[in-house]
Amino acid sequence: MLNRWRRTALLCGLLVGLMGRGALADGGSVNSSLAVGGGAGCGGAVDAALTIVGQSPSVAERPVDVMLTLDTSSSMTAAMPALRAAARHFVDELDGRDGLTDGAITRSRVGLVNYATGAYLQTGLSSETEMIRLRIESLRASGLTNIGAGITLSQWQLAHSELRKVMLVMTDGMPQNAEAARTAAQSAKGDGVVIYTIGLGGDVNDGLLREIASRPEYYHRASGGSDLEAIFGSISRDLAGPAGTSLTYHARMAEGFEIVSATASAGSVSFDGTQLVWEQDEILTASATVSYRLQHVGQRNGPHPSHATARFTWIGEDGLPMGAAYDAAPVVITGCNLPPVANAGPDQIIPMTGPDGARVLLDGSQSTDDEMVDLLRFTWLKGEAVLGTEIQLAHSFPLGAHVVALEVDDGEFRHRDEVLITVTDPFPPVTVLEPSGTVGGGGWYTSPVTVTTVARDNPGGAGVDWTDVSLDGGNTWDRNGGPVTISQEGLTVVRAFSADGAGNMETPPVEAGVRVDMTPPTIAVNSPEATDYADDQFITLDWVTADAHSGVASLTAALNGEAVWLGQRIDLSVLGPGIHTLTVSATDVAGHRTDVAFTFAVVVTYESAINLKHRFYEMGWIDSSGIVVSLDMKLEAAMRARDRGQFDVEANILEAVVAEVQAQREKHVNTQAADILERDALYLLGRRG
Question: Is the fold of 64-240 the same as that of 522-603?
C-alpha cells in the first residue's frame, strides 16, 4: 500500500541537521551539528554523522605578557643553537596566533632575560618580533646557574603589567642557590605571575623545577635540545588554549533502530548496538567527525525518532562544562504494515446532567496503526446502529448502562474494541412538607394541622422509591406514611427524607416546625379584690396573664372605661364612692383573645372622712388648723349621734360640715379638698338611719 509517507520518502530524502554551539569566554568556540538521513524502507539503513568544528582563541583576544627566562650558563654551550631556535619558534607561534603574521604580536608582549652567574635583561616587554629575534640570536653561553637572579629580574619586568603575566624558566643544571630560587619563585607567584619551567638533560633538579612551576603539570622535561622546540610550541599554545577539552558525544537509539557500524576521524568511538560513545581529549582550530549507520528493526510505517537521546559535552577554556543536546531526528519508514488496534477508551461513569441523560465524549484517539491515526476509518456503533464516524464523537446517552463499540479500518485490516458507558443519576429526590389548618398569627395554627409530604425526583431520574417521616426529632420514622395530623399544642418538628431508585438519599432531612395553639391566654386579677374599699385608701392594680404556647402578644386594661396599666397606684379618694369595673384584655400571638371584667366598691366612712381631712391638711390643701379641729369636732359629734340613733342630729351636724366647707372653699380649703369633703359629707348624709 503506497501511502503518503512512502510517497514523501520517494520524492525527497530528508536530512535533519541539529546544531549545538558553545563560545569560550575569550573567543574560542566549538560548534557541532548532527545530521540523520531522512528515510528508509522497512528494515533499511540510514546514516548519521556528528561534526565538531573547533576554533581556538587567539592571543589577541586573550593577551599575555611573557618573560623568557633562559639559562645561558657554560653548560648550555652545546644546546644554545637548539635553545635559540626554540625561543624563536615560541615568538613565531605567538605572532601567528594573533591572526596576523606581520612581525608584531597584537596586544601581547615578550621580554627576554638570560641568567648565568648573574641575570641580564636583553629586552623588556615588546610586541616587535624582529627585535626580540635579534636579542635571542645574540645569546651566548658562559658562567654559572643563578636561577633566582633570573626569576627576580623577570618579575621586575612584569611588575607593572596589566595583562596576564607569564614567566618561562628554562635550565639545564643545578642552581647555585636552590633556596634563593624557591624564594624568588614564591615572590613572583605572589605577584600574580604564572611560571612554566623546562628542565634540559639529565642533570636537573626535577623536584625543584616542579616546585617553582605554578602547577606541577607546568613543568616540562626535555631529554635533549631537539625536544625544546616542541615544548616551547606546546607552551605557546597553552597560552591561548584549545577550543575545548574532554569532548564526549553520547547517543542512545530510539526503539526500532540499532547501530551497526561507526567510525571517527579523530578520537575514539565505541558502540554496543543501542548506544554510541565518542571521546576526544581536545580540539584546536580543527574539525572532527563521527559517522555511524542505523538499521531499522521495527514493524511500523511513518515518521519515527531515530535517537532517544543525543548529547555532546566538552570543557571550555575557563574550566566550565558546556554541552549541546539534540532532539530526536525523525526518520520516515515505508514498506511496513501491521493491523490497526482500536482503542475505544476507558469505561466511563458519567452523571446525568439533564432529563435526556448525559453528553459523553467517545474518544478513539488512542487507537494505533503503523500509519498515522488520521488515515484510519472510525465507526462508533451501539448494537447495529451507527452513532458516528469521527475519532472523537460527542453523543447523548440516557440513564443506564450502554455498550458502545469502536471499529477501525486501515483498508487492509479491521479491529474492534468496546467501552461501557454508564450514565448515573447523582441527584437525590427533594421532599416538600405541605401543612394545612387554620392559620393564626405569627406562624401559629389555631386548629389541628395536617402535614402532607410531597417527594419529587429529577426529570429523567430513577424516580422516588420511598419517603420516611418523623414527628419525634428523628428517633422513630414512619416509612411511606400518609398525611399526618398534629393535634398537640406547641411546637412539633416534622422531619422527612426520600430516596430514589438509584439509591440516592436526600440529606439532610427536610424539616418544618408546626406550631399549634388552640388555647386563649388566661388572666388572674390580684388587686383590687372583691371587697369594699374606704375612699381614704390607695390600691395598686395587679393582675397576671399567661399563655402556655404562642405567648401573650398584647395586653390592655381599663378602669371604668379609662386606660390603666399594671402596677398603677389608684387614689380612691379621687375615684370616689360607688361600684367600679376593671376590665383586662389579653391577646396571644396566635390571635386568641381573653377579656376579664372585675368589679369592686368604694365607700365613705366617718373614719375615712376624718383621715382625708388630715391628709389634705398635711398636703396643704387645708391651710388652717382651726378648720381641721372644727371639722373634726363636727364629724365626731355626727358619728356619736349616729351611734346613739339620733339620726336627725347626725343630719344637722353633717349639713353644718357641708356649710363650713363651702364657707371656706377657696379661702382656707382649696377646690380639690372642698369637692371631696362635701362629697363625703353628702354620702354620709345619704346613708344615715
Answer: no
pLDDT at 25: 39
Choose which CATH entry (3.40.50.10470, 2.50.20.10, 2.60.40.10, 2.40.10.10) describes domain 522-603: 2.60.40.10
pLDDT per residue as tens digits for the range 437-474:
999 899 999 999 999 989 899 898 888 989 999 888 88
Per residue in 553-568, pLDDT tens? Answer: 999 999 999 999 999 9
Strand partners, 433: 453
What is the rounded distance in angstroms from the CA atom of residue 196 to the CA atom of residue 211?
10
pTM score, two decimals? 0.44
**Residue ranges covered by each domain of the chain:** 4-57+243-334, 64-240, 348-424, 433-506, 522-603, 606-687
Q: Which distant-in-sequence residues (6+ apart) come within 8 Å of 145 by Cβ? A: 71, 73, 75, 115, 116, 171, 173, 174, 175, 176
The model's pLDDT over 158-172, given as tens digits with 9 standing for 90+, comes to 999 999 999 999 998
* Domain topology for 433-506: Immunoglobulin-like (2.60.40)
Under CATH, which architecture does the 4-57+243-334 domain have? Sandwich (2.60)
Give residues with Cβ within 8 angstroms of 550, minimum separation 6: 440, 441, 442, 444, 515, 517, 588, 589, 590, 592
Inter-residue contact 470 to 511 (CB < 8 Å): no
Say if residue 652's pLDDT is above 80.
Answer: yes
Question: 206: Cβ–Cβ under 8 A, 6 or more apart, which residues?
Answer: 199, 219, 221
Mean pLDDT of the chain: 87
Query: How far apart are alpha carbons 244 and 576 in whole angstroms?
Result: 129
CA distance 373 to 13: 23
Assign residue 224 a region: left if phi > 0, alpha if psi is -120 to 50, beta otherwise? beta
27 close to 205: Cβ distance less than 8 angstroms: no
Q: CB–CB of 252/275 below 8 Å?
A: yes
Can you read off the three cell numbers belonging to residue 398?
440516557
The counts of H helices and E strands in the chain are 12, 43
What's the residue count for the chain?
A: 689
Residue with cell 533502530: 257
Please tell me the CATH superfamily of domain 348-424, with its number. Answer: Immunoglobulins (2.60.40.10)
The dotted CATH code for 64-240 is: 3.40.50.410
Residue labelled with grid coordinates 365613705:
604
